[in-house]
Amino acid sequence: SFFKLMKFLLSKQYIAWYFLVPVLIVHFLVVALPSVLSLALALTDWNGFGKINYVGLENFYELFDDRYFKKAVWHNIIWTCLFLTIPIALALTCAYLLTGIKRGQMIYRLCFFFPYMLASIISCQIWKFIFHPLYGFPAWLNSKSIDLIPAVSPFTIKETSLYAVAFVDGWHFWGFLVVIYITGMYQVDNSLYEAADIEGATKFQKFRFVTFPLIRPVFIFSLVIIIIWSIPTFDYIWILTQGGPAYSSEVVATNLYSQAFDRFNVGYSSAIGTLMCIYTIFIVSIFAILRKLGWEI
């Protein structure tokens, strides 16, 4: 009967799905469907208009012969290596030092985390003005007859553009790492530190043998997000240099954008996006396999 059907549909096992359905519909229309269409377009030479021609794997063959794409991949590797070293080392050091501060710690946390809360366009404009050759810090040093830095923006020099953008993005990002590391450190039992003090351990030894092993899951999580986020990195590079000068700061995401919206190679750019997706799945799969093998990550 109608009432039995309504009672069945309104049972507890189905109510949760009713709340999930709107989210699933939005996810399907915004994420899943465009992703599938992108995979299909990667096998075409479509330019965004007109007829769509199937070309098979030709776009992928062309990618591996494209020196600009290879250069972009190399820049992504450099970017990933930079973010896996300097921001992590600084964040671990600052987080460990902050655990010894008892008063005003929230103020310090806010100071570290504040750059991460800023919109990327604001952060980029701040550093553009700081490095401005006429009004910024280099010009101020030159006005004082201090020639430590040339009065040229590092964003406009081929040799420094990528590293300058990485510095700005790292300045924005490392405070986030400080917060998640210090959160993990506060989960460590104080009795372990007391035992280490009794044994005469130094601060470095306490960090190495007590703190770091116990925050390993948080540390591995930070490695995963950095490795994954380093591939689609786009906003800071595009705002500050747009991949220039002369492709010196071009990465895979800016190359994809240029192919799609400047050159209207939609099929070719979809192939780039497909490779980015495969890379992400590959990285996540590695960590999932390691967890199944019993690794504490």
> Count the helices. How many?
15
The biggest sheet amounts to: none
Please trace the helix and strand order, writing H or E for each element.
Answer: HHHHHHHHHHHHHHH
Total strand segments: 0
In round numbers, the mean pLDDT is 87
Shape assignment:
globular
Structural class: mainly alpha
The portion of residues assigned to helices is over 70%
> How far apart lie the N and C ends?
52 Å
Poorly predicted ranges: none
Oligomer: single chain
**Global Rg:** 25 Å
Strand content: under 5%
What topology does this entry show?
Elements: H1 2-9, H2 12-41, H3 58-63, H4 67-83, H5 86-98, H6 105-117, H7 120-130, H8 137-143, H9 161-185, H10 190-198, H11 203-214, H12 216-229, H13 235-240, H14 252-262, H15 266-292
Helix pairs in contact: 2-15, 4-9, 4-14, 5-9, 6-9, 14-15
Protein architecture, described:
By secondary structure, this protein is mainly α. Helix content is 70%, strand content 0%. It is built from 15 helices and no strands. The protein has helices spanning 2-9, 12-41, 58-63, 67-83, 86-98, 105-117, 120-130, 137-143, 161-185, 190-198, 203-214, 216-229, 235-240, 252-262, 266-292. Helix 4 (67-83) packs parallel to helix 9 (161-185) and helix 4 packs antiparallel against helix 14. The longest helix has 30 residues, at 12-41. It is globular. The mean pLDDT is 87.
